[in-house]
Every structure is written in C-alpha cells, then in structure tokens.
Amino acid sequence: MRRLILAAMSLLLAAPALAQPAPVTVFAAASLTDAMRALGQEWAARGNPVPRLSFAASSALARQIEQGAGADLFLSADEPWMDFLQSRELIVNASRTSPIGNALVLVAAATPARAPVALGRGTDLLALAQGGRIATGDPAHVPVGRYAEAALRWMGQWEAVSPRLARADNVRSALLLVERGEAPLGIVYSTDAAASRGVALLGTFPAESHAPITYPFALTRRAAGNAQAVALHAFLAGPEAAATWERFGFRLAR
Q1: Where does this protein have coiled-coil stretches (predicted)?
Q2: What pLDDT score does 17 carry?
Q3: Which of 129, 141, 160, 227 would be a feasible disulfide site paired with 59, CB 3.0-4.6 Å?
Q4: Tell me, what's the pLDDT at 145?
Q5: Domain span at residue 221?
Q6: What are phi and psi of 46, to 5 degrees?
Q7: Does residue 185 lie in a domain region?
Q8: 209 within some domain
C-alpha cells in the first residue's frame, strides 16, 4: 500500500512538469543574434520556456527547413529566402510579416581610426581597401552579400570589386574578418557594426542603392496549431518587442 501511495504522489508531483509546454525552436538570421538572445530572455521572464535559438545565414537555415529540420519559427534577413520556403509550402502563409528592417554600411577596423566616407557613385572602394579585400556575405546565397552586390552595381563598381571580395558564410563571419584585420573593409548591416567594438562605421550606403532590407518572420508548417510558437511569433512581431528591436538598432516597419 505504501508503495502505491508513494507512486501516486510521484505522479502528482510530476504532473506540472509534464504539463510544461515544449520550448519553441527559432531559426534566425545571424544578424539577429544579440537581439534575439535578449528577446528570448524577455520571453522566459514572462513564464515561458526559453526558446531554442539557431543562428546562421538565412540561406543555410531555409535549406535546413526544406530538408526537414525541426524549426517552429523562421526569421529571415531577406524576403527571397522566405519566398523560397513559401513556394514549397513550408511556412504558414498567413503568419508571414516583416516587422523590422536594417541598413547597409561600410566598416573598417576600429584602430587605426579612419575618416568617415560619403558613399556614392564616385566612391572608390578599391582605393579605400588599400589593396586588401572587402568582406561581406557570399552574394550567391547570403542576404547581406546580395544587398552588397546590388549596392556595388549601383555604384558601377561590381566588376572591379567582385574579385576582391572576401565571401563569408554569414554577416557575423564577415564582421569577424574585419575585426581580426584579415580584411581592411567590410560591408555589413548597421546593427552588426553597432554591436562590435572591433570595427568603426565609415559610411552608410544610400537606400536607393539596394532593395529595402527587411526581415520576414513566419511560422513553419510544423508549428501550425502550436500555441507556444504562435504566441512567441506574435510577441516578436508585435509592440511588446519593439523597444528591444530598436535598442539593438533595427528599424521598425511603419
């Protein structure tokens, strides 16, 4: 009898733990790393499980989802990679929204200090690189690289600069090349430049030089009906997260 009572008590004590919702798995673009870690903690402070966060280039994450990776939310750094998943019916279309944006900037190592540059069609980026390479994401698949290619084409310098690019797997890897002095210049997002003490902002590419930098968020098909995932998506895309996105330098959609 005593064993039965102890077994019953164990089940009762375990019941709340069993009722806890599973953590939501979020696949997010590398440029969202710092902001999403902060927002994950804010979400947990509201009594929710800490989300599982996976950061990489949007292209790599989209391919992983296509291959069956267990993501509940996808936060992309550009619209085309979300289009890629939507065309394959791998996201909940009605959940797709683009609540934040960014800017494209030119950075250099913080030391020695360099004078700011007004970026325009007449700016000679190869001269600024002083014979070194310019780090950015690989334009073949990384969003920041695609924006960089568009900006360089607008400047009329793509053919000259393209062979001198250090093509990184994601924007944070490109930033690291500049921080380490392996590339004298980098083309990254303004939020990444602001998050690094190892680089200095030289200039911002004109908005008309590339497509608007927007971040689409969406639930994946596997998360349809997952109340925790739906709630986290609403939190990240809604007014409660807005102040944190702005604190990390992202622009809110108006």
Answers
A1: none
A2: 46
A3: 141
A4: 97
A5: 2-101+214-252
A6: -90, 5
A7: yes
A8: no
Look at residues 203, 210, 231, 171 and name the one whose alpha carbon lies nearest to residue 79. Answer: 210
**Is omega for the bond preceding 112 within 30 degrees of 0, making it cis?**
yes
Calculate helix-pair angle for 79-87, 143-155, nearest 10 degrees: 130
Q: What share of the chain is helix, strand, coil (3-state, %, to 5)?
A: 50, 20, 30
pLDDT of residue 216: 98
Instruction: Give the burial string for 7-33 (b: 16+ CB within 10 Å, else e).
Output: eeeeeeeeeeeeeeeebbbbbbbbbbb
**Residue 240 sits in a domain of what CATH number?**
3.40.190.10
Segment 13-67, tens digit of pLDDT: 444 444 567 899 999 999 999 999 999 999 999 999 999 999 999 999 999 999 9
Place of tokens 């310019």: 134
How many structural domains compose the chain? 2
Tokens of 155: 């400047």
The number of CA neighbours under 13 Å toward the Cβ of 199 is 32
User: What pLDDT, on a 0 to 100 scale, did the predictor assign at position 152?
Assistant: 98
